[in-house]
Amino acid sequence: NAGVTQTPKFRILKIGQSMTLQCTQDMNHNYMYWYRQDPGMGLKLIYYSVGAGITDKGEVPNGYNVSRSTTEDFPLRLELAAPSQTSVYFCASSPLPGLAGGEADTQYFGPGTRLTVL
Amino acid sequence: GENVEQHPSTLSVQEGDSAVIKCTYSDSASNYFPWYKQELGKGPQLIIDIRSNVGEKKDQRIAVTLNKTAKHFSLHITETQPEDSAVYFCATHLVSGYALNFGKGTSLLVTP
User: Fold this and answer.
1) Bridge-partner residues for B101, per DSSP?
2) Separation of alpha carbons A23 and B23, rounded Å
């Protein structure tokens, strides 16, 4: 299994441009998440999805959109990039919570996308 | 919402010494407490976790303790090695929620 993969690894955007950060997982996890990580800060949740066709806002959703058309993919869209969106973005996935065996709630992270908006 | 405080923000130890990182949380409904290790340029990786019905868990040189009454949990690394150098994050999970609430991280440096 490749786990959680993210593309691109690095990107520089100009203010007002748009882009999509790609995330794919091959573990058949129902739950997927997008976090952003700013220097010296913990990870903050942007959006999450509990299954195909179902998404919901996290702590910092403004300026972002998501979709979940398949179990595997969870892209994050930036429509009008702003300098405040300069950050490292991590996608994660987890099994369906509530299962026995200790695997529930474990989140597996991708390698991240470093985005700079100038 | 849940507030997770993590201390210290930086920690420097000599190889072979022990390292302890502590986190406190505010919501008594939290039921799952993972610790993640993040190496430079990589995503966080789970190293150990504990659930609310357990007080302590060990995995070789790593241990986590949980005090539900005081609402704090700690990561203990014994016999530290240079490859333990990384940023460590604690997190909590609410029984009614889906996502994790992270602390701000501790940068651990192990010097030979």
Assistant:
1) B92
2) 30
Answer yes or no: is pLDDT of A8 > 80: yes
Output phi, psi for A83, to 5 deg.
-55, -30
In order, the DSSP letters of B67-96 are: ETTTTEEEEEE-S--GGG-EEEEEEEEETT
Listed by number, the residues of chain A in 25-84 with a beta carbon closer than 8 Å to a beta carbon of chain B are 31, 33, 40-45, 48, 50, 58-59
Three-state DSSP state, B83: helix
The DSSP H or E segment spanning A76 is: strand A76-78
First to last CA, chain A: 36
Question: Of residues B13 and A103, which shows the higher confidence score?
Answer: B13
Name residues 15-54 of chain B within 8 A of A (Cβ). 32, 34, 36, 41-46, 49
Specify the DSSP class assigned to residue A73: B
Q: Is A96 on the interface with B (CB under 8 A)?
A: no
Residue that the structure tokens 């995330």 belong to: A23
A79 touches A63 (CB < 8 A): yes
> Which residue, chain included where needed, has tokens 């993969």?
A5
How far apart are alpha carbons A65 and A56 in whole angstroms?
10
Name the least confident of A62-66, A94-98, B66-70, B76-80.
A94-98
